[in-house]
Every structure is written in structure tokens, then in C-alpha cells.
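The instructor's notes for this session suggest beginning with a concrete chain rather than abstract definitions. Hand out the sequence below and ask the class to guess, before any prediction is shown, which regions might be ordered.
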Amino acid sequence: MLVAVTGGTGFVGTHSVAALLRRGHRVRLLVRDRAAVARSLAPLGIDPAAVETVVGEVTDRRRVAEAVRGAQGVLHAASVYSFDSRQREAIRRTNEHGTELVLAQALRAGAERIVHVSSVGALFPTGGAPLSERTPVGSPAEPYLASKAAAERIARRHQQDGAPVLISYPPALLGPHDPRLGDQTARLRDVLRGLMPVWPLGGFPVGDVRDTAELHAELMTAPRTGPDRYFGPGVFLPTRQYVRTLREVTGRRLPTAFLPARAVLPVGRLVGLLQPYWPWHLPAEYGAVYTCAYATAVDAAAGTAGLPGRGIAETMADAVRWLHRSGRLTDRQAGLLAAGKEPRPAG
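After discussion, reveal the predicted structure:
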């Protein structure tokens, strides 16, 4: 099967491309920068010559049409994932308009299977109810999450019209080989660099990028006998447990104070107002605090296509090892893993 992939040089995209190639599919990428293909795929052992490349934006109708022409499958993974208030226009343009354009062109080209990569955040807030494929689209009061909710409505509208559109809901993703050091990987690094001594209480679903990539590859050929919406494997991780697990895999103390999430929301709003005027990234983002305040667990019966997930300690350890080996963490910051030692067992 020829699968056209948007966002194929990002974190989810590169791992999904690797999973598709392992299953024998041919892959065509729509990318903004041709040079990014080698930088992103080579660390995963993929020869850039193994994929076709179309250069263009997901908001360029002509380039999108060229990318999906003749493809039996389309994986729409392109997204600006950021809680940075400086990115709001790019978030809206890519996540909303890009989704509308890619799905429409994929259907026009006659694609037999279209997978739209959404986010669990598109379903927030739920009023405390667990997430499932029946959860209605949320109305999150945060620009990035709101953009994913808007894209979700577009995908669901196509589903209601009978189009062959499936939706995946990745949790917050960690793991090795993050080409652009995305939001979650950067946050983990910030904790180990001592930049996040205060955390909001609450939690959020967390998973391994490699498991979500396998889900995307599975959905390209899985029989359409089940639901049209699938959750990436993962667990709901309270913020206390997040820090505790990171302590266990690195052997570091990581002193941390925890405050009620909703009490910290005003601080996040203030940071969002200050960020456009501050030259460096500020880690106390409103979107991250909002997620901790309103996220809920995925229902145990929700669809994951029957795929198992890695344990969170393994995922974190692999992410820390990669950050250290790529020079983004010092020996001291990576702790035990920098010395080649295995993570200490919990408890």
C-alpha cells in the first residue's frame, strides 16, 4: 500500500513512518523542508531514499493534492503542538485549516483509509468522565487544545458522512528520537535541568511514541469492524507519579513542590501574556497547567486496536538515555542512566 504521510518529520510522524515501512508499505511524505527527511529518519535507521518526498505546506492545496495522488492510505499527523502563546496563528492555520484541506484532498483522491491524528486533549474537559470513543468533542479554553478540537470536528463530520476516516488519540508522548524536541520531551528535559521545581497537581494520559506509531500502522489495514476512533496505548499518570518515576529511573532526588492545578492557572495565564515579550521559552505554560487540571483517564474498554503498551518507566528511561546521548542532558542530569546503570526498581 502507498501511504501518504503529513508531519512525517515530527516525533509521531517519524516513528509512524518507521512502523509503516516495517510492515512493507511504501511511504510518500509531504514536508516543508526536504533536508529534514534525512535528519529525522536516519536516526531510526531509515534510508531517506526509501520514501518519496513532496515539498510543501499542509495549507497548500496544490502540494497536498500532489502528495495524496494515487495513495491508498493517508496518515495526517501534521500539527503544531505547542502551548507557547507566540505560536497561536501557526497553530490555528496548521491544525485547523491544514486538517480541513488534507482530509478533503485525500477523499477527492480516492484514498481507501485515512487516519487523522487527533489528541486526547481534543476531548477535554469531560466533567470528570473517562475518555472513550463516544466522548463528545470538547471545548477546551486553551488555543492549542481548542485547535485540536476544531480539527476533530472536521474529522468527525467526514465520519458522519460515511468517509473512510479513522481517528487516533495519542496521549502525551515520550520516547527516544524526537527530531524537534517537542513539548513533552522538552518538559521532561526541563525537569532534569532543574527548571520545573513546582508542578500542578492532577495528571494526564502518557504513552510511548513507538506504541502510538504501531497503532497508526495497524489502522492502515485493520478491518473496519470495530470503532472508528482509537486511543494510543498509555496510562493516566498523576503528576506526583510522573516525578516519582523520573526519580526512580535516574536515581536523582528532584525536589519538587506540588500545588493545586486550578490555583496555578492564573500563573499560566500570566506567563502566556509575558511570553511574546520574553526572548526565552518560559516553562510554566497555561496549556500544560490546564491539561493537568482537566485531563481524565481513558476508559479501560476504549479501543486501542488490541495493541499493548510499554511501561512508563521503560519509556522515560529510553527518553532520558536519548537526551543524554544526543548531548541534551549532562551526565549529572541523566543520573544513573548516564553511567549505564539500570533504573532502580520502584519502591
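Then share the key points. The chain is about 40% helix and 15% strand. The first helix runs from residue 11 to 22.
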